[in-house]
Structures are given as C-alpha cells and as structure tokens.
Amino acid sequence: MMFLNHFLSLNKQREKLYNKAPKGVLKDFLAVPFPDPKGLLQQTPILSVDFETTGLDAVQDKLLSVGFVSLQNSKIELASSYHQVINTQQKLHTDNVLIHQITDREKEQGLPLQVVVERLLEALAGKVMLAHFARIERQFLRQACLEIYGISPVWPIIDTLAIAKRRLDKSDVAYDPSELRLSNLRKRYHLPEHYAHNALNDAIATAELFLAQVSDDSGMNKIKLKHYLS
Q: In angstroms, rounded to a whole number, what is the distance separating the alpha carbons of residues 143 and 57?
C-alpha cells in the first residue's frame, strides 16, 4: 500500500507540473501517464540512461554527455541508441577528462544542453527510466530542466544498484561497497567487460545487467513493475 501511495503521489505531481509547464517538449513529456506499476515488467517500456558529468554536484557541475537505449519485451533495442556530447561552458578538469575521455574540443563541438535534454525527454515519455546509481541521472536531469524551463519534472525509475544492494543486504553477509559498481556486478553475472565511462556504453551495460538481474527472479514475463521501482 505504501508503494502504491508513493506511485499515485508521483502521478499527482506529474499532473500538477503539467499544468505549470510552458508549452513545448517538457509539457508534452508530462502529458503522458507513467506505466502501470501493477503491469508486467515485460510489457513496460523502459529507457536505460547514463550521464557523464563534470562532477557529482548537480547544482555546481554540468551535464557533459547523454546516452540511452530502449528496452522492450525483454530485448535491448540497439536501433534506438542515442549518444551526444553537450557543449557546456564549464571548463573540464584533467582528472575528470581521464575518466570520461571527453576533451574540450569534443565538448565545443557538442550540442546545446536544451537540444539534448529535449531529445531525452521525447524518448523517455511514457517509459520508466533505468539507471545504475540513479541519483546522478535524477538530480542532473531535474537540475537541467530547472535551468531550462524553471520546473523540475518527476518520473519513475529503476536502479540496478538499488536492486543489487537490496539483495546483498538480505543475504546478511558483510560485503564491500565496491561490489555494487557496474563493472563488478556485471562480473557477478558473467557479463563481458565493456568500455566504461562512455554514456551510451554504460546505458547498454546497465540494460544488460538489469536483464540478468531479472532472470534471477524468473524473468520479465512473470514479474510486475512495482517490484523493481526505486
């Protein structure tokens, strides 16, 4: 009951924000109802999303690149893949560049923040966002929308890190927090190594991990969405 109340509250927030939003992509996004939490996971449209950022503070730092790919009927739809670097005005620091490998030159050739955010909102409408350590995606997208539209939207999220943490906590055995990293969780499920810290690569890697996690619970055709929402 607590979960359903939370989801109903999320939908009410969406409706209120829709009434306040200016005409355009954000209002169109808020006009589409969220997927039914009581529906089967297999029938739920999902968008796996990953961001690269200039830091971890959504207010002080900026979105640097966005990658996403759709999941439908237990399949990753690679034809839906999207990756784009953003032309942020914030200067990149060397230690940050070593992680995401995006240079100032690539950044300067990127698209404006609003263009990329609107492409993401169009793809996310009517879907559930999937992310690993979803706090980053939630906070940075809400902050970007606040800067662009003056409104921070809401949307349902599945977090592969949260799924893994719940399972490890239930085992009642001490574990190293590093076990919750995307690469280490993929090893646990015998998934191949991937080129990390590229937004699209990580979005696809997260989608693969999620499918592996769900397979442990008898598959997407037997489980309801509500059991995985964060």
A: 10
Q: Cα 135–139–145 angle (5° rounding)?
A: 150
Please give the C-alpha separations between residue 161 and each of 28, 167, 229, in angstroms, as whole numbers. Answer: 30, 10, 12
Residue 48 near residue 71 (C-beta atoms within 8 A) = yes
Radius of gyration (C-alpha) of the chain in whole angstroms: 17
For the chain, list the domains and their CATH numbers. Answer: 2-227 (3.30.420.10)
Task: Give the position of tokens 């240079």.
Answer: 103
Contact 225, 36 (CB under 8 A): yes
* Cα distance between residue 94 and residue 163, in whole Å: 33
Show pLDDT as tens, one digit a residue, over the chain (230 residues). Answer: 445 456 668 889 999 999 999 999 999 999 999 999 989 999 999 999 999 998 899 999 989 999 999 999 989 999 999 999 999 876 655 555 445 557 666 767 789 999 999 999 999 999 999 999 999 999 999 999 999 999 999 999 999 999 999 999 988 888 999 999 999 999 999 999 988 889 999 999 999 999 999 987 766 777 889 999 98
CA distance 136 to 52: 9
C-alpha span between 26 and 124 (Å, rounded): 11
* Residue 202 CA: distances (Å) to CA of 131, 182, 188: 9, 8, 17
The DSSP bridge partners found for residue 105 are none
Prediction pTM value: 0.92
